[in-house]
């Protein structure tokens, strides 16, 4: 199973609707990153969260980190067609027993379509 | 800054051929990462470098894959010989520090026939 689970896998919403994407880790989080990807393009950095309870916003996108639950949510308010794409979360975790090396793991992504 | 630059953007080759992917990180970034993305497995870290030195190559699938970073502004990922299962999008990313934001290149879409 994936160390970093994203839900839902895909989402279709009507323009103007709100939506939430979740990212849950099976390991303790030391940092959580949200990226957006459009087909055929690279990943565009959205936000990074490092502290439990931290919340960041950029335009109509808000991300929160719930450290106790090892989970982060990405919320889009009043969605627009320009929000369509694949949203990926990446987690900075520590591998216990391996020299406490840091490791970055990724979810499989959530595909978002916004119908005008 | 131009961002992370990758070449080629698309590569179509036949099984058994050697493939070389290239990356130029953002100037001043000490870390460089190579990723592979497929529908089935998502984004996978293959290897990363710190100051041109490979730190963790545990994600490299097998000996057919090799990566080098001869200087701070250039890295290559080589597959020899290539196989159809290597078909994927390969991304290069760079960052200032290991825990810092990674900036991704546009990717190389590799198709092995």
In short:
The complex is a heterodimer of chains A (116) and B (113). With 116 residues, chain A is mostly beta strands.
**Biggest sheet statistics of chain A:** 6 strands, mixed
What's the rounded overall pLDDT mean of chain B? 94
The shape of chain B is globular
Structural class, from helix and strand content of chain B? Answer: mainly beta
Distance between the termini of chain A: 35 Å
Low-confidence stretches of chain A: none
Give, in order, the helices and strands of chain A.
EEEEEEEEEEE
For the record, give the distance between the C-alpha atoms at the N and C termini of chain B, rounded to a whole number.
36 Å
Number of contiguous helices of chain B: 0
Helix percent of chain A reads under 10%
What does this molecule look like?
The complex is a heterodimer of chains A (116) and B (113). Chain A is mainly β. Helices cover 0% and strands 61% of the residues of chain A. Chain A contains no helices and 11 strands. In chain A, strands 2, 4, 5, 9, 10 and 11 form a 6-stranded mixed β-sheet that branches. Chain A has a 5-stranded antiparallel β-sheet with strand order 1-3-8-7-6, with no helix packed on it. Chain A is globular. The N and C termini of chain A lie far apart (35 Å). The model of chain A has no long low-confidence stretch (mean pLDDT 88). Chain B has 113 residues and is mainly beta. In chain B, the strands form 2 sheets. In chain B, strands 2, 4, 5, 6, 9, 10 and 11 form a 7-stranded mixed β-sheet that branches. Chain B has a 4-stranded antiparallel β-sheet with strand order 1-3-8-7, with no helix packed on it. The radius of gyration of chain B is 13 Å and the shape is globular. The interface between A and B is medium-sized, with 23 and 18 residues.
């Amino acid at each position: 199973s994936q160390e970093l689970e994203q839900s839902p896998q895909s989402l279709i919403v009507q323009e103007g609707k709100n939506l939430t994407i979740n990212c849950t880790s099976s390991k303790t989080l030391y940092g959580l990153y949200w990226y957006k990807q459009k087909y055929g393009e690279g990943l565009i950095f959205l936000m990074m969260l490092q502290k439990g309870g931290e919340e960041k916003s950029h335009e109509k996108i808000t991300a929160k980190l719930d450290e106790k639950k090892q989970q982060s949510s990405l919320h889009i308010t009043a969605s627009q067609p320009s929000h369509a794409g694949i949203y990926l979360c990446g987690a900075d975790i520590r591998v216990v027993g391996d020299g406490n090396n840091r490791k970055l793991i990724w979810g499989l992504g959530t595909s978002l379509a916004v119908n005008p | 800054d131009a961002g992370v630059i990758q070449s080629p953007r698309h590569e179509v080759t036949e099984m058994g051929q050697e493939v070389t992917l290239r990356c130029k990180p953002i100037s001043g970034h000490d870390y460089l990462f190579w990723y592979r993305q497929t529908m089935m497995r998502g984004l996978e870290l293959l290897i990363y470098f710190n100051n041109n030195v490979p730190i963790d190559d545990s994600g490299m699938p097998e000996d057919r894959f090799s990566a080098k970073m001869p200087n701070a502004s250039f890295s290559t990922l080589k597959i020899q010989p290539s196989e159809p299962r290597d078909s994927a999008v390969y991304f290069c990313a760079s960052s200032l520090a290991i825990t810092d934001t990674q900036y991704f290149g546009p990717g190389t879409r590799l198709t092995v026939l």
